[in-house]
Amino acid sequence: MTASHNRHWVGLAAFAVFLAVLLLFLSGNRYLGFVAGITFIHILWACGMNLLYGYTGLMPMMFGGIAGISAYTTVNLLGQMSFWAAAPIGTLLAAAVGVVLGVPALRLRGFYFTLCALVIQQVISLGFIYFSSLTNGDTGISQIPPPEWFGGVLRGIDYTAFLAATAVAGIGILIWIVGSGLGRRFIAIREDDGLSETLGINVTRYKLLAFFIGSLFAGIGGALYAPYVGFISPRSFDVLVSLNIWLMVAFGGRGLIWGPVLGAALLAPLPFLMQDYYTLKAIVYGLLIIAVIILLPGGLLREIRFLRRSRPAGEEIAVEPQRVGETG
Amino acid sequence: MMESALLHVTGLTKRFGGLIALNKVDLYQNADETIGMIGPNGSGKTTFVNCLTGYLRPEAGTIRFGDVQLTAVKPHRVAAAGLTRTYQAVRIYKELSGEDNIATALLEVTEQPQADELANMIEFVRLQDRLHVPAGSLTLFEQRRLELLMRLVQRPKLIMLDEPVGGLASTEVRQMIDLLQALKERCSIFVIEHTMKVIREIADRVVVLLAGEKIADGPPAEVLKDRRVVEQYLGGDDA
């Protein structure tokens, strides 16, 4: 599309190279490699959340639950088929559920949908506990086997590299969508859905399509998460996970391609680095949420760019409004 | 006359709870005429436009536009049929540039205008140098013209304008009237206005709504002299 948008492809190439180098350094350290892998999954999730929250203006607080539906489905199918057959089924099921759960967003605006989505998330979490024949209830499912991979199994740094590639692909898909007419429709809906209808955009269809695509991101991340960690439980996909992913997007900069990537890269490793102080974790997250709302309403990346920029805004406003007001 | 009607509304009725906002309103508009709608605040003018453009579902009545039935049709389908509207409080994508506003207006247009046609339309509303800044930073008059331009690029058959000169300074009102006069060459116009100057100058026919009922329908010269209209609406402060 525009020159400023095409810059993102250069950024993506640079990011891929950076990850390749990072993986070389991490290949000797299993623990840090694992933290990096979890971060890559969160980058993928943040891209999906960004598509919904940042670009379309919807607040999918059941995002973690949707990822969980994919993870549980995939793990349950592992007995009958390979991971590579099970994961797409789990992902598609999660995306279908995501579309159905997105239906309230057609009637409820802003804050009211957020509340509704939070309730939906709680219901999904309770479902993970209740249907214990599929989920093993509160105990969770452990010893999930790693996927088979060219005669061997995918594990360790190879799995981490695969997650890095998936994250890069996820960012690439987001760049592509945002630069397309589809992205323009999403942004139009975020800015004013009534006006968008007047201009001929089928708002219902595109909101549900946003939920479908966003839930695909959630689902792929969920399916890949289960064998990577080897253990899933209802707490792996609870409301805190949803809030976390939202925070990564809001902290980094919603509606920017790289803002949420930055947010995920900074926040996803945090729980691992703070393991000795895990009681403080909730406090740190609470403070971060408040700090974002008060100090960084546009997100970290937008603030950095705002400080750096002395000339008047305008050029890039197309896809990336400088300082968005409340998008609800 | 009625056979060639571009817009033909019969018995349009809309209730909000116990309040009858529109009561069996009939209206037709030919493609070659401009209709002005007047009426006091709360008389149902905007409700009328909302019903026609799919934002409200009327309890009774039919809406025919050309040879398409638009009764209980979704807004985006109304737009696809070539009937569009503007808003009393101007509505544009304020965070986006003028260019992006136009690009968004063109998303669902099947027959994209050529570059020179587009340039011609932009010149028509005199916004050629103002499209690269965020639309929210434009003056109200510029925003109104951008709003108009976003409809124009879609080449609608009929534009329903809801108070197009609301909030404009008197010199701007003059310019807007001239713009609307020229707009008649491009599409049919239905205009809601409180400013009688606009109605007198551009409307071929005036429709008066009072408490949801149509009380007059005819040439401006006659309607604006009608005793009931003068009493109920114009009073002494004829603008």
Q: What does the model show?
A:
The complex is a heterodimer of chains A (328) and B (239). Chain A is mostly helical. Chain A has one domain. Chain A contains 15 helices and two strands. A two-stranded antiparallel ribbon of chain A has the order 1-2. In chain A, strand 1 and strand 2 form a beta hairpin. Chain A is globular. Chain B starts with a strand and ends in a 5-residue tail after the last helix. In chain B, helix 3 packs parallel to helix 5. The relative contact order of chain B is 0.17. By secondary structure, chain B is of the alpha/beta class. The longest helix of chain B has 14 residues. Chain B has two domains: 150 residues, P-loop containing nucleotide triphosphate hydrolases (Rossmann fold, 3-Layer(aba) Sandwich), CATH 3.40.50; 65 residues, no CATH class. Chain B is built from nine helices and ten strands. In chain B, 33% of the residues lie in helices and 26% in strands. At the A-B interface, helix 8 and helix 9 of A face helix 2 and helix 3 of B.
Give the tags.
A: 328 residues; mainly alpha; globular; B: 239 residues; alpha/beta; Rossmann fold; 9 helices
Q: Which helices and strands occur, and which strands form pairs?
A:
The complex is a heterodimer of chains A (328) and B (239).
Chain A: H1 3-26, H2 30-55, H3 63-77, H4 83-102, H5 110-130, H6 132-135, E1 148-149, E2 152-153, H7 156-179, H8 181-191, H9 193-198, H10 203-229, H11 239-252, H12 258-267, H13 270-273, H14 281-295, H15 300-308
Antiparallel strand pairs in A: 1-2
Chain B: E1 5-16, E2 19-30, E3 35-38, H1 45-52, E4 60-65, E5 68-69, H2 75-80, E6 83-85, H3 98-105, H4 115-124, H5 140-152, E7 158-162, H6 170-183, E8 188-192, H7 196-202, E9 205-210, E10 213-218, H8 220-223, H9 227-234
Parallel strand pairs in B: 3-8, 3-9, 6-7, 7-8
Antiparallel strand pairs in B: 1-2, 1-4, 4-5, 9-10
